[in-house]
Recover the amino acids of this structure.
């Protein structure tokens, strides 16, 4: 992947590409008739950049997001794989016949270069390297079976409705990221619940197509409390002009 300039690279690094609907035009339309006046020197181009970068911080990797596989399903998956590996180990260790093992030994001997054995009068004696590897693999298969099942047992049980809880945490975090941008864009120093909630809802509808946010009032209330105690502070130059 190549970039034509530093600005394009920065947009990519800050996940701005994840929010194609957040543009100057869409924001101008979505925030029309907003009840607060804009601050001097702030336009919708700046607001679009600021919102895209702020919301980019809320993007979680799929394996860390609320849409990931549940711990219960992951536990079952690993446990089942462990059982399957154990059954294969048992079939190979206890089920292979003397004739089968002898056939494998002869096959390994045909392809053996004598490595690891003893050579007398040009003939190699001992166990062929591939036969040694086969026996070692059987031991590893037993280890793998037990390891997978131990790994499954250490996975914690999630609380009921855990996905809803994590979605809520993400929405609160988004509100905390949007708060300093809201305060900078509008001529206000207060994070009043009604206008800020209105701003958040409009942005969420644009960015995530979320017109009906579950537990919305509580999310905004909690975000305001957290912001009052410890407001979000971005790294220097993360959002130029903030």
């Amino acid at each position: 992947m190549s970039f034509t300039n530093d600005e394009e690279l920065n947009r990519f690094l800050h996940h701005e590409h994840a929010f194609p609907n957040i543009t100057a035009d869409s924001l101008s339309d979505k925030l029309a008739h907003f009840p607060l006046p804009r601050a001097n020197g702030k336009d919708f181009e700046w607001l679009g950049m600021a919102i895209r970068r702020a919301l980019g911080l809320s993007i979680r990797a799929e394996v860390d997001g609320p849409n990931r596989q549940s711990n219960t399903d992951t536990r079952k998956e690993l446990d089942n794989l462990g059982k399957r590996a154990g059954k294969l180990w048992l079939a190979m260790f206890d089920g292979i016949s003397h004739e089968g093992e002898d056939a494998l030994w002869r096959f390994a001997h045909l392809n053996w270069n004598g490595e690891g054995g003893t050579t007398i009068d040009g003939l190699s004696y001992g166990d062929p390297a591939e036969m040694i590897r086969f026996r070692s693999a059987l031991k590893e298969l037993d280890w793998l079976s037990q390891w997978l099942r131990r790994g499954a047992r250490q996975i914690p049980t999630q609380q009921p409705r855990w996905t809803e809880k994590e979605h809520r945490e993400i929405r609160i975090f988004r509100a905390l990221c949007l708060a300093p941008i809201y305060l900078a864009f509008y001529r206000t120093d207060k994070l009043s619940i009604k206008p800020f909630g209105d701003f958040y809802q409009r942005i969420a509808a644009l960015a995530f197509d979320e017109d009906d946010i579950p537990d919305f009032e509580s999310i905004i209330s909690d975000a305001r409390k957290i912001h009052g105690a410890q407001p979000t502070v971005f790294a220097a130059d993360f959002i130029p002009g903030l």
Notes: The first strand starts at residue 118 and ends at 120. The chain has two domains: 9-64+160-229, 71-153.
